[in-house]
Specification:
Blueprint lengths: L12 H7 L9 H21 L6 E8 L10 E8 L10 H6 L19 H13 L3 E6 L4 E10 L4 E11 L5 E10 L1 H18 L4 E5 L5 E4 L22 H10 L5 H8 L5 H11 L12 H13 L16 H12 L3 E6 L3 E3 L2 E11 L8 E7 L2 E3 L7 H7 L14 E9 L16 H53 L7 H18 L2
Parallel strand pairs: 1-7, 12-14
Antiparallel strand pairs: 1-2, 2-6, 3-4, 3-6, 4-5, 7-8, 9-11, 10-11, 11-14, 12-13
Length: 514
C-alpha cells in the first residue's frame, strides 16, 4: 500500500544550485555582483597560469538600461577578457552551460574546486535579467568563436542561442560578457579591495578594471617571474575513503593488489605496497576487483592506521614564493619593512599543503593596528575573517614578546596552497582550523615576527645613537668654548671632526645593519 500524498521526484544539479544559490555566495545583489566578478576573473587567471602566460586581464562593469530607476540594485554587464590559451570551441557550451562539467576535478592545486563558481554567476544572471551569457574564445589566434548560451536548469544542459565565427586578428584568450542584477554601490568597496589584494598575490599580472562610473584602475605587474604550474598527482592513502577506493578499483586495469596500489596511490611503490598488504593480511596477488564490501572497509581502515606510508610531497603544489610575495607586498603596501616566511611542505588527511606568511611594517598605506590579509591558492578571502584559522592564530600572538609597540602599523599576509583547501563553505571565504594547518601558520607567523623584532631592535639602537649625536652637537661647542677660555688658548679645538666621525658611523649603521 502506498501513500498517494507523498510525491517523489529528482532535480538536476543546476536546479539544486538555482534553489540554493546562497551556498555559493550569491545571497544578495551586492554579494552576487562581487562573487560573479571574482569567479570570472579567477577563471581568467587560471587560463593564463596553466600555460605559463603572463596574465593581462581586463574587467569592465557597465550599467544596463533594463530599469527606469538609476538606483541600485539594477542590471549590470560584466565583461572579463584575458590573454590565455582560450577554450576549444567544442567544450564551450558545456564549460559554461552545465554544472559540474569542467577542468577542476583533478587532484592538483587550483583556485576553483568544482568549476562551479562561473556557472553560478551565469545562473544568477539568467534568472535575474533573462539574458544569455556571451563567450568569445580563440585558441590559435586565427579564428575566434562567439556563443550566446542559456542554461536549461531542469536538464542541466546548455542551450545555444547563437554561434558565430570571425577573425581573431592574432589574439588568443576568452572574453565573457554576463548581465546580472547587482548592487555596485554596496559592493564597490569589496570589489576594489579584492582587486588590490589580487594584485598583491599575483604581482606578475596586469589587471585593468573599469568601474560603472567610468573610473579606470590599473594594477601593473611588478615582476615577470611566475610560480611553476601545479601538477596532477595520485590520491594519497591517508586521504582515501570507501567510495574513492571503489572508483579506483573500477577504473584500474591492474589485476593484482601490489600493482594496483603502486599504480593508484601517491608515493606507494611495490616494496611499500607489499609491506602494507602483509600488515592488512591480504594476498599480494589477489585481484582488487574481487574485494567484497567488508574487505574494502577493512582495507580503508588499515590505510588510515598504517604509519609507514610516505607523506605526500609538494611537487603538485605551486606556492607563490618568497620573492613574488615580497614584490607583491612592496608594490601594493609600500611598507618600511617586509619579512617573508615559508614553511616546509606538510599534509592533513593525505593532502599536501604549504604555508607562506608575509609581514609588512610601517609605510604610508598601512594604518595603525594589525591588518590581516588572507589568501588560499592565490584567492583573496574578504568575508568571514573572524571565523578563519588565520584570525585565530593572529589573536593568540603575544605581541609584547616580540617588542612590538601597541597599535603598531602591521599587515600580516597568510597564504595557504594545497590540493584541497579546507574551506568551511562552498563560497570559499574562510578556512577550517585543522590542527596541522594551525601549527604551520603559528610557526610561520612566529618566524616573521622574530625578523621584525630584530629589525625594531636595530632601529631603536640607531635611534639612540642619533639622539646621543644630537646631544653632542648641542653641548660640544659650549664645552669647547669654555675649555678654550680656561686654558687661554687662541683658537677652539676641532670638535667638528668628532661630530663628523660619529655622523659617518651612524650613517653606515643605518645602511648596513637595518
Amino acid at each position: 500500500m502506498t501513500d498517494e500524498r507523498v510525491e517523489f521526484s529528482e532535480i538536476s544539479p543546476s536546479e539544486f544550485f538555482y534553489r540554493n544559490r546562497d551556498l555559493a555566495g550569491f545571497s544578495s545583489p551586492s554579494r552576487a555582483l562581487y562573487s560573479a566578478i571574482r569567479e570570472l576573473f579567477e577563471n581568467s587567471l587560471d587560463a593564463c597560469e596553466l600555460y605559463g602566460i603572463l596574465p593581462d586581464v581586463f574587467i569592465r562593469v557597465t550599467p544596463l538600461d533594463l530599469y527606469t530607476t538609476d538606483s541600485d540594485p539594477k542590471a549590470y554587464l560584466i565583461e572579463v577578457q584575458d590573454n590565455g590559451f582560450g577554450i576549444p570551441p567544442k567544450h564551450v557550451p558545456k564549460a559554461f552551460g552545465q554544472v559540474f562539467f569542467g577542468s577542476k576535478f583533478q587532484l592538483k592545486q587550483s583556485r576553483g574546486m568544482f568549476g562551479m563558481g562561473g556557472k553560478m554567476a551565469i545562473l544568477y544572471g539568467q534568472i535575474t535579467t533573462n539574458k544569455p551569457v556571451s563567450i568569445t574564445t580563440s585558441v590559435d589566434g586565427v579564428q575566434a568563436f562567439t556563443f550566446d548560451i542559456l542554461i536549461d536548469i531542469q536538464e542541466n544542459a546548455p542551450i545555444i542561442l547563437k554561434k558565430s565565427s570571425h577573425p581573431a586578428e592574432g589574439s588568443t584568450g576568452t572574453t565573457v560578457r554576463l548581465a546580472l542584477n547587482g548592487d555596485y554601490q554596496r559592493a564597490s568597496q569589496k570589489v576594489r579591495e579584492y582587486f588590490k589584494q589580487a594584485a598583491m598575490v599575483t604581482p606578475y599580472a596586469n589587471i585593468t578594471f573599469v568601474d560603472p562610473y567610468g573610473r579606470l584602475i590599473i594594477y601593473e605587474r611588478g615582476t615577470k617571474s611566475m610560480p611553476p604550474p601545479s601538477k596532477e598527482i595520485l590520491p594519497h592513502p591517508y586521504g582515501m575513503d570507501v567510495e574513492a577506493l571503489r572508483r579506483l578499483i573500477r577504473q584500474s586495469k591492474e589485476d593484482i593488489m601490489v600493482k594496483f596500489m603502486s599504480k593508484s596511490f601517491h608515493r606507494v611503490g611495490d616494496r611499500v605496497a607489499k609491506k602494507f598488504l602483509d600488515y592488512v593480511g591480504f594476498d599480494q596477488n589477489r585481484d582488487p576487483k574481487s574485494l567484497s564490501n567488508d574487505d574494502i572497509t577493512k582495507f580503508i581502515r588499515a590505510l588510515h592506521e598504517y604509519d609507514n606510508f610516505l607523506q605526500p610531497d609538494a611537487s603538485c603544489l605551486s606556492p607563490l614564493g618568497k620573492e613574488n610575495l615580497m614584490v607583491g607586498i612592496e608594490k601594493e603596501l609600500g611598507p618600511e619593512f617586509v619579512a617573508v616566511a615559508t614553511r616546509p611542505p606538510s599534509a592533513y588527511s593525505g593532502f599536501p599543503f604549504i604555508v607562506e606568511v608575509g609581514l609588512a611594517y610601517g609605510g604610508k598605506i598601512i594604518p595603525s593596528g594589525t591588518k590581516l590579509f588572507r589568501f588560499a591558492n592565490r584567492i583573496p578571502l574578504l568575508y568571514d575573517e573572524a571565523n578563519d584559522v588565520s584570525s585565530k592564530v593572529i589573536n593568540e600572538v603575544d605581541w609584547k614578546r616580540y617588542k612590538v609597540p601597541q597599535n603598531a602599523p602591521i599587515a600580516i599576509i597568510t597564504h595557504i596552497c594545497s590540493t584541497r583547501i579546507p574551506y568551511k563553505t562552498v563560497g570559499k571565504e574562510y578556512l577550517a582550523d585543522r590542527p596541522e594547518l594551525e601549527r604551520e601558520l603559528k610557526n610561520a607567523v612566529r618566524e616573521a615576527l622574530r625578523k621584525l623584532k630584530l629589525y625594531l631592535s636595530k632601529k631603536n639602537s640607531i635611534a639612540m645613537v642619533k639622539r646621543k649625536l644630537n646631544i653632542y652637537s648641542k653641548y660640544l661647542p659650549l664645552i669647547a668654548k669654555f675649555s678654550t677660555e680656561l686654558s687661554g688658548a687662541k683658537r677652539l679645538p676641532r670638535y667638528d671632526r668628532l661630530l663628523n666621525r660619529k655622523q659617518i658611523q651612524g650613517d653606515r649603521e643605518d645602511d648596513t645593519e637595518i
